[in-house]
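REVIEWER CHECKLIST
Item 1: Sequence provided? yes
Item 2: Single chain? yes
Item 3: Sequence as submitted:
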Amino acid sequence: MPIATYSLVALDCPDPRSLAAFYQAVLGGEITKYDEDWYDLHVPGGARIAFQRAPDHRPPEWPRGDRNSQQEHLDFDVTDIDCAQEEVLALGATPLDLDDGDGERGFRVYADPAGHPFCLCRQ
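Item 4: Structure as written out by the authors:
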């Protein structure tokens, strides 16, 4: 029997409203505001991602492990990775590692506007 049930992933960031809007454009869903420092994105399928204001937020240095490492990242399955890449870059994502070996690796790595790493993965 499990001890707990999954609730959400919370991302620290300097501007929670705009980061919630970025992920809403990527994933769909509905944004709810708790207060100016906390926004939730309820994505289709029931998952929830929260965005919490951290005024002194420093983005992780992907893929470092010795200091200021990534701590976490999000994976998103896509049917057309080239099209999805074009769209997330237009929304403000930054490419971190796009060399997928002509499709052999199956994923590409980006940073959201606050610097958190995420991957687009071929379905």
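Item 5: Key structural point noted by reviewer: Strands lie at 9-13, 30-35, 38-42, 48-53, 74-78, 94-97, 107-111, 117-122.
Item 6: Recommendation: ____
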